[in-house]
């Protein structure tokens, strides 16, 4: 009897032992053959760890989609900050009393590191045409074709004339930079596209940001490919026309380098937009990628 009981105990213990081994084996097999990331690891634990790290690592964009600094700077529609001002040293218009366009252009060029003064630029690069009396009465150029008179005593010039003058200067400097005209963008849009990225913009507005209130009219006797009139047509120039360098903005105002003041001035945004529209949305920027857009 004693011996029978001992065998029975042994048999029970043996069965319990087998059950425990089976439970441990069942629990261990999944963790042994499969990592948490679903990668088989039984044969090579080191390669399994590498696979898990690769799966959990952030995705790396391909070279085709990776943005470069030039890509970013050429994206005009990315969000712009709510306000921004460019550090521009304004010039004082104390010599060429009618040459606000010249001062704005030279200020723009100096901002980009070019060593040029208003006299060299005016004399060597700005196309001018005199106003005079003739058979057709008082005559003069289309302002898109030439500066009416001269920057000392004349009237002014529009965007194509200054764009051409800047590009002639840049050609002499053997520079890849070019001046281009932006058309039909508001001041706010120019700020988002250029000012927010530290690129000042020449704009045609008026003195003290007043709406044009009086005009001088003459018969056109000089045109080129940029003219909006033909010879014999009449051209009217607003007497308070003014050219400045747009340099900044915030929620209430636009900021300009104004040669008449010799410093930075600001005006209320809505009024600026009205005046800018009255002058035909004229703007000139310096493009640094070598691609002409006009």
Architecture overview:
By secondary structure, the chain is an alpha+beta fold. It folds into two domains: 53 residues, no CATH class; 210 residues, Alpha-Beta Complex (Cathepsin B, Chain A), CATH 3.90.70.10. The strands form three sheets. Strands 1, 6, 7, 10, 11, 12 and 13 form a seven-stranded antiparallel beta sheet that branches. The chain is elongated.
List keywords for this structure.
13 strands, alpha+beta, 4-stranded mixed sheet, 2 domains, Cathepsin B, Chain A, 7-stranded antiparallel sheet
Q: What's the helix and strand layout?
A:
Layout: H1 2-33, H2 45-56, H3 69-73, E1 84-85, H4 100-111, H5 118-125, E2 128-129, E3 132-134, E4 137-141, E5 147-148, H6 159-172, E6 178-183, H7 187-193, E7 201-206, E8 215-222, E9 234-238, E10 241-249, E11 253-258, E12 263-268, H8 269-278, E13 282-287
Parallel strand pairs: 2-5, 4-8
Antiparallel strand pairs: 1-10, 3-4, 6-13, 7-10, 7-13, 8-9, 10-11, 11-12
